[in-house]
Amino acid sequence: MRRSKPRDLAVGLFLLAGLAALAFLSVSVGGLGSGAPGGLVLYAHFDEIGGLKPRAQVTISGVRVGEVKEITLDENYRAKVRLDVDHALELPIDTSASIVTAGVLGDRYVVLQPGGETDMLKPGDTISFTEPAVLLERLIGKLIHNPDVGK
Q1: Does the pTM exceed 0.90?
Q2: Spans of all domains in the chain
């Protein structure tokens, strides 16, 4: 049986293009090649992070401006979250950070609310105003154990 070299070449090129497309999609879905440029490292301390994970997005007005890089404990046993946001942003020093949930049971992410001060946050600064994650389990537990709350 004789094979056609142009056909083999076309099949090989088609296979390579398919593998390249698959690699591109896996990197895009994984979040390795997307997101904001980063460069401005900020810190925020929270009493409760409620399942926030590294690589979670950081948004302002619903627009992704960065991601969570690291979560550790500080000396007071509070969660210390390192945020890497777009270096082009000029965030006032009274900016607040909140941990919210996408939907009812979705992933947690950080929302920044810029303040009105004229002084701006610098790389390595700490966001002073933070709001911890609201845990649905605790709210339901309070309702069950204290039925007078809803009245």
Answers
A1: no
A2: 1-34, 39-141
